[in-house]
Give the backbone structure.
Amino acid sequence: MTEKSPHLTIIEEDSVNMVRFSDRKILEELSIREIEDELFALVSATPAIKLLLNFTNVEHLSSAALGMLINLKKEVEGKKGKLKLSNINPQIYEVFKITRLSKHFDIHEQSSDAISSFS
Amino acid sequence: MTPVDPHNVDLPSDDEFKVIEIQSTLTEAKKPESLILKEIEASGYDEDATFAIKLALEEAMTNAVRHGNSGDANKKVRVRYVVNPKHVTICVRDEGEGFCPDDIPDPTTPDRLSLPCGRGIMLIRAYMNEVEYREDGREICMTKINPAHAQD
C-alpha cells in the first residue's frame, strides 16, 4: 500500500512503514513542521510502528531537521515502536557523525537491510 | 576535509565585501543564499565545499532570524560576503541583543544528545575553516577555504 503527500511517500512493506522524502532539501522550518506533523500522525495511527525513513534523493539537511528526527524517535519509542534510517548520502551522514547522532539513530546503508533488521 | 591553517588566509578588506540587507524572515533569508551560491558555482568550488558553505549559511541565517532577531520581521539581517576562487567569507549580522557563543552548551554530551536543538553553531564550526563572532555575538563571520587552493 502506498500513500503520497506533498512531502512524503509512505510504502507499507513486510509490516514496515517506509517513508521516502519528496524534498531534496529538508531545511525550512515550515516544511519540517509539515513533515513532522505527517510523521507524528502516522506514528499515532500505527500501534508499535516499524518506521523506516529512507533518505534516497535527500541532499541537504539542517539542524532543525535533526531536531525533528530526535523528537520523532522519542515519539516512536514512547509508543513502543522502532525507528530506523537508511540510504543516507555520505555528505549527510557526515552531519550525523559530527553531531554524534550517528550513534543515537539506527542507521542502515540500504533500506532492504533496515527492513530485514526489524524482525 | 582538507586540513589547512585558516590564519594563512588573506581575509578581505571591508571594501571588498558585497552587502545585502533583508527583512528578518525565513523566506527573505533565501535571497542572499541564492546570490552567494551562484558566485560559488562560478568560482570553482567542489560539491563538498559548496555543501559546507550552503549548510553553514543556512544555519547562520536561521539563527539570525529566529534567535538573534527573535522572529521579529520588522528587524533586518545584514549579510556581507566575498567570494573568490581561494576562499569565501560570509558575515551575517542581526539586530538582536547578541550572545556569548561560549555559553552555548555542547550538544554532543550524553545528557544533551537527545535534545532537539542547539546544533547549528556546532555544524557551522565543523564545516567552515574559520568562524568569528563580532559585535557581542550579533555578527558571525565565517570563512571557507577552497580545498582546491588549500596548498597555495
